[in-house]
Amino acid sequence: MATYVGALDQGTTSNRFIIFDHNGQIIGVDQKEHEQIFPRPGWVEHNPLEIWQTAQDVIRGALAKAGISGSELAAIGITNQRETTVIWDKNTGNPFTNAIVWQCTRTDKICKELTQDQGQNRFRDKTGLPIATYFSGPKIKWILDNVPQARAAADKGEALFGTMETWIIWWLTGGPNNGSHVTDVTTASRTMLMDLNSLQWDEQILQIMGIPRQILPRIVPSSDTRTWGITLKDGPLNAEIPVCGALGDQQAALVGQTCFNVGEAKNTYGTGCFLLLNTGTTPTSSRHGLLTTLGYQVNDQPPVYCLEGSIAITGALVQWLRDNLGLISSAPEIESLAKTVKDNGGAYFVPAFSGLFAPYWRSDARGVIVGLTRYVNKGHIARAVLEATAYQTRDIVEAMNKDSGVELSMLKVDGGMVANELLMQFQSDILDVPVIRPEVSETTALGAAYAAGLAVGFWSGIEELRQNWAEDKTWHPAMSSNIREKYYLEWKKAVDRTFNWVE
Questions:
Q1: Is 445:11 a contact under the CB 8 Å cutoff?
Q2: 263-278 pLDDT, tens digit each
Q3: Buried-state track 347-361, b at ≥16 Cβ within 10 A, e below 16
Q4: How far is C-alpha 63 from the chain's CA centre?
Q5: Are 163 and 183 in contact (CB under 8 A)?
Q6: Buried b / exposed e across 385-394, counting CB within 10 Å, b at 16+?
Q7: What backbone torsions phi and psi does residue 365 show, to the nearest 5 degrees?
């Protein structure tokens, strides 16, 4: 009897497989990190074969820890790091080069060329996105322009492009032996190649970028009763299980947080930070630096759209403090170090390591620490690192309030950093709204599980999912308005100092 649903969370720094019961509670989990490859300043890569191997490892590991067999899963859902791009040989499954990660800035020259005629918003009306190094389209073009074998195979119809969920689904359902080559609408909306209204690849943009249509996956709903494929008996699950749910990681968190009503928002604190606001079944265009993106689609129902604010570096800044500076030996230590001081001592840290994403979209920006005096110590630096996440979130909320015309009244939060109570209190203070953490903070994987479970009838519908959501803790603002605005004004001054660093 299938009594559980499994979700693979293919993240920027690790793979996790999480098994959920009918109440949305975790009954088994396994996680493995994968290598971050930095060939040059600003370049970030992953090894796709390593990611496929660790995906198999964590699937087997989670099943073993839960003490169940693969046949007890009703379905598999997948969530992924969205814009990260791989092109591979469809006959062998071998990638032509490492995957280019969403954070990578190597496509800066391509993006500048694309903006020359009609500016950064050239494709925004169709795609909801500005031209930026963040998205997959320019990454595909870079690989085809710089890896001759990839271009030759693409022209012959022997290459396949995918973001990481496409890559994993293809392998899970057979790989070179008729593996399913699909991407869901939410991840497709992050390529800069999909028309937001038709939910199809845009022929004109493909032509401008020189991308052959034949290498692209089929675009499917996030939750699809028409199963894309089944896992192989000799694969990591040792069972034939439907693969029928997929969402980009931030959209998966939106679904996991059950933000199904217009005006509901969530913020996920991971490697980066991503705030999504449900805007309903018609796309809302942004005039304040946000992205218009797909939220989710269930079968052939009208898709639900979102406004999104994307921040490149939040949790990654804590990792940088640990790995590059050695100020802490583990990520959780940052909270106790930051608690050794009562404020930031006047220091602000803007982590524009690969430029600034929303709402600025400045690829010329680079990271700065400002306001340093002899008074500042490592506790102040730790505090400035945490506060950077909260300030960047406020930048997004300010833009979102302007675009949507709706003032944010509360914020649901999830992701690894929500365990940091100092950060959550400061976030509430600087936004002046309550911040709410759910009982199950693994909402990204939960959203992918919900998508797959809905497709096979494991859950009856959205109302049943809502009943699974429960609050764990709420933080309320406790900062005076004059202090709040003083801090935020100083933050904005710090952001200004990052601009025009790269010529």
A1: no
A2: 888 998 988 888 998 9
A3: bbbbbbbbbbbbbbb
A4: 25
A5: yes
A6: bbbbbbbbbb
A7: -80, 150
Is the separation of the CB atoms in 247 and 92 below 8 Å?
Answer: no
User: Can you list the alpha helix ranges (DSSP code H) found in 184-276?
Assistant: 185-188, 203-209, 249-256
Q: Are 291 and 299 in contact (CB under 8 A)?
A: no
What is the DSSP secondary structure assignment for residue 37, as one 8-state letter? B
Task: List the beta bridge partners of residue 87.
Answer: 161
For residues 26 and 446, give the distance between their C-alpha atoms in angstroms, rounded to a whole number. 9
Nearest Cα to Cα of residue 307 among 335, 278, 327: 278
- Rounded to an integer, what distance in angstroms lies between the CA atom of residue 309 and that of residue 392? 10
Quick count: other Cβ atoms within 10 Å of Cβ 414? Answer: 25
DSSP string, 146-171: H-HHHHHHHHHT-EEEE-HHHHHHHH
Q: What is the pTM of this model?
A: 0.86
Contact, 18 vs 58, CB < 8 A?
no
- Cα dihedral value 210, 212, 215, 216, nearest 10: 80
Residue 236's Cβ-side half-sphere holds a number of Cα atoms within 13 Å equal to 22
Find, among 137, 119, 121, the residue nearest to 129 by Cα. 121
The model's pLDDT over 271-300, given as tens digits with 9 standing for 90+, comes to 888 899 898 998 988 888 888 999 999 999
State both tokens at 161: 């492009």
Rounded Cα–Cα distance for residues 127 and 412 (Å): 27
For strand 273-280 and strand 304-311, is the pairing parallel, antiparallel, or unpaired?
A: antiparallel
Q: Are 315 and 271 in contact (CB under 8 A)?
A: yes
Residue 66's SS3 state is helix
Residue 441 has pLDDT above 80, yes or no: no
Asked if the bond preceding 332 is cis, omega within 30° of 0, the reply is no
Query: Amino acid identity of 31?
Result: Q
Q: Which of 76, 78, 32, 74 is nearest to 57 (CA)?
A: 32
